Amino acid sequence: MARGFEIRPLDATFGAVVTGLRLAELDDATWRDLYAAWLEYALLIFPGQHLRRDEQIAFAKRFGALEFEMAPISNVKSDGTIITESDDSDIVKVLKGNMGWHCDSTYMPVQAKGAVFSAEIVPASGGETGWADMRAAYDALDDHMRAKIERLAAHHSLHYSQSKLGHRPRPGSDYSGYGFHNGPAPLRPLVKVHPETGRKSLLIGRHAYNIPGMSEEESERLLEELVDFACRPPRIYHHTWTPGDTVVWDNRCLLHRAMPWDMNRPRVMWHSRIAGNPASESGLS
Question: Which 3 state secondary structure label does DSSP give 240?
């Protein structure tokens, strides 16, 4: 039992379910203990919170400045109609892109620190969210691979990762600006040192490509090999959502992905993204 709440670790190398508190009503002492738990476990799951939008934004702001306050991750339009998989839309292509392992905003000048994510409407099956522990993945590498990647870096681009799905946003689309550009793409090391814990982790995922000094084929092969190795038990966890669940994860050491679901069924999630510190989350110069 921590101060005012209970922590139950997941059956994985990371993550915990936290009960016995209301995120909208945290005093400063409880918050400090919760933040320390977040740095330790990297993923905290809070069942049954049912946060209002202003409460989610306020909770996210306790972690720092926000990259954006709140955005829907959803296949439901504002008028309540459902965007199905057969729709040839930017939204469907972005939702499908999110099903690949990735870190948020690595393709931007400053990588995100983390995210608060909550469930409003979930399908009866599918639509889980998965996370993968890049700290444990780095620790599990053999000495040869660690030595190989220690000084390597890769570019990161949303334009690159979405183009692999055939996605070219329509001019004027909500998805035509943020991250969708032909360059320059930030360069980030394959091995990242966490600015608060000092632990090393892999910085990989679907946005990473084009390792300097390697051919395109060699780079892609190495990056795919690393993701395949990293995203295996016991380093992964997939959460089956219940409406009202809220999670917060550390984007500096976890990958995440959405799982497929029947897009004839609604799924409405709310995402608040915590901005990274430019001193530690900027790309290499």
Answer: coil
Q: What is the pLDDT of residues 148-157, one digit of tens each?
A: 999 999 999 9
- Residue 154, C-beta contacts closer than 8 angstroms, at least 6 positions apart: 187, 188, 190, 204, 208, 209, 210, 211, 219, 223
Over the stretch 27-75, which tens digit does the pLDDT of each residue have?
Answer: 999 999 999 999 999 999 999 999 999 999 999 999 999 999 999 999 9
The predicted pLDDT at position 169 comes to 65
Does residue 33 come out as left (phi exceeding 0), alpha (psi in the -120 to 50 range) or beta? alpha
Cα dihedral 207, 63, 3, 38, rounded to 10, equals 10
Q: Indicate whether 1 pLDDT > 50.
A: no
Buried b (16+ CB within 10 A) or exposed e, 243-278: eebbbbbbbbbbbbbbeebebebbbebbbbbbbbee
In 3D, which of 276, 278, 284 has the Cα closest to residue 105? 276
The two tokens of residue 272 are 């608040």
- Quote the CA–CA distance of 48 and 18 in Å, as a whole number: 11
Q: What is the C-alpha to C-alpha distance for residues 118 and 272, in angstroms, rounded to an integer?
A: 9
Q: Tell me the pairing of strands 16-19 and 43-46.
A: parallel
| Angstrom distance (rounded) from CA 101 to CA 125 | 20
User: Cα(224)–Cα(95) distance, rounded to whole angstroms?
Assistant: 21
Cα 242 from Cα 46, distance rounded (Å): 11
Q: In sequence order, what are the residues at sequence separation of 6 or more whose Cβ sits closer than 8 angstroms to the Cβ of residue 172? A: none
* Domains detected in the chain: 6-276 (3.60.130.10)
